[in-house]
């Protein structure tokens, strides 16, 4: 068994130390996790996960520049162009999700990845504004995936209580199914418009209590349309509450939501599908 305290005080370090304790003391796994968590200065493992989530985000410097590109042509004016938005993520695109998993998300699936760092929209959109709106949605979705380590899922029934879509939360809107590869758990992101969601607060609370689910609202404005008033909720089984709280802490430490009404990308002449390195603007920086 180790003779020194856990350093650094990470969840993986606690779990490793717990294995040592289990072997040397002959105790069960849960008891070993509790002892290791206390030795690391936390009340229990759930406390350690929640306490370290924000720290892990803050010490990770985004360094992988991702370029989002979309092309448009206005059918009335016959003008056309290319919109380009760059963001910095903590990992390359294909470490956020595989090609196959990307296809399970409506927006990501309608794009292709070029050279590992450019995400290019396949469709030629009908105007500049709609192209910017789509690129901002894509940027926020990638930020969400980066913060939570969740991946798009096709198992939509798995996100509802009892695996039944009829058990969807009251007022659910713009829902997405997500999968956590490290735990095998499924989660739902729900993004109703705030004014409508507040009218259903009581019903949603009753729904959560009835099905032993948790509905957590993020401070971060979400993926769908924050400029139009949508808000992000993370929903999952109560058995995953501590994991959800850790993910929410990471989500809420994201930069302010990228909005198309405060466009921070570049507008380029219409050209080929791929934007050249000389055309790529500086990435949006992390930070509030």
Task: Give short descriptive properties of this protein.
288 residues, disordered N terminus, 5-stranded antiparallel sheet, 20% strand, alpha+beta
Largest sheet: 5 strands, mixed
Whole-number radius of gyration?
Answer: 21 Å
Tally of helical segments: 10
Domains (count): 3
Question: If strands are numbered along the chain, what order do they take across the biggest sheet?
Answer: 3-4-1-2-10
- Let me know the average pLDDT: 84
Low-pLDDT runs of 5+ residues are: 1-8, 56-60
Characterization of this structure:
A 5-stranded mixed β-sheet has the order 3-4-1-2-10. Strand 3 and strand 4 form a beta hairpin. By secondary structure, it is of the alpha+beta class. It has 3 domains: 49 residues; 105 residues, no CATH class; 102 residues, no CATH class. The protein is 36% helix and 20% strand.
Layout: helices, strands, pairs:
Blueprint: H1 11-25, H2 29-39, H3 45-59, E1 64-73, E2 80-89, H4 93-96, H5 99-102, H6 106-109, E3 111-114, E4 118-125, H7 128-148, E5 151-152, E6 176-180, E7 185-190, H8 194-199, H9 201-211, E8 213-217, E9 233-237, H10 241-252, E10 266-268
């Amino acid at each position: 068994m180790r003779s020194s305290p856990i350093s650094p005080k990470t969840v993986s370090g606690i779990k490793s130390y717990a294995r040592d304790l289990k072997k040397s003391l002959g105790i069960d796994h849960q008891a070993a996790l509790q002892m290791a968590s206390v030795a690391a200065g936390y009340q229990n493992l759930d406390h350690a996960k929640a306490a370290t989530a924000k720290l892990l985000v803050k010490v990770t410097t985004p360094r992988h520049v991702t370029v989002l590109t979309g092309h448009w042509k206005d059918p009335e004016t016959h003008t056309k162009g290319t919109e380009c938005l760059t963001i910095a993520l903590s990992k390359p695109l294909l470490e956020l999700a595989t090609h196959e998993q990307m296809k399970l998300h409506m927006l990501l699936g309608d794009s292709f990845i070029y050279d590992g760092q450019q995400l290019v929209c396949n469709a030629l959109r009908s105007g500049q504004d709609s192209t910017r709106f789509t690129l901002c949605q894509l940027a926020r979705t990638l930020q969400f995936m980066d913060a939570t380590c969740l991946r798009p899922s096709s198992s939509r029934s798995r996100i509802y209580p009892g695996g039944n879509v009829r058990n969807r939360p009251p007022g659910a809107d713009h829902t997405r199914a997500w999968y956590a590869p490290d735990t095998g758990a499924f989660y739902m992101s729900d993004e109703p418009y705030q004014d409508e969601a507040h009218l259903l607060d009581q019903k949603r609370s009753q729904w959560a209590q009835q099905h032993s689910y948790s509905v957590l609202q993020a401070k971060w404005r979400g993926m769908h349309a924050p400029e139009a008033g949508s808000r992000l909720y993370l929903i999952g089984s109560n058995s995953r509450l501590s994991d959800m709280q850790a993910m929410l802490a990471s989500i809420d430490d994201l930069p302010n939501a990228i909005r198309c009404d405060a466009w921070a990308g570049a507008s380029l002449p219409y050209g080929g599908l791929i934007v050249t390195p000389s055309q790529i603007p500086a990435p949006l920086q992390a930070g509030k």
